[in-house]
Amino acid sequence: MKFTISKQSFIDALSQVQHVVTNRTTLPILSNVLIEAKDGQLKLTTTDLDVGVVGSVEAEISKEGSTTLPVKRLASIVRELPAEMVEVSIDSKNHASIKCGPSFFKIIGLGEDEFPPLPTFDDAKEFKISQEVLLDALKKTSYAISTDETRYVLNGIYASFKEGKMSLVATDGRRLAMVENDLEFPASNECDVIIPAKAVNELQRLLRSEGDVSMRLNDSQVSFEINGSLLVSKLIEGNYPNYRQVIPSNTTERVEVSREGFLETVRRVSILATDKSNSVKLAFGANTVDVMANTQDVGEATEQIDVKYSGKEFAIAFNPEFLMAPLKNLSTENVYIDMIDEMSPGVVRIDGSFLYVIMPMRVTG
Question: What interhelical angle do 71-80 and 7-18 show, nearest 10?
Answer without folding.
Answer: 150
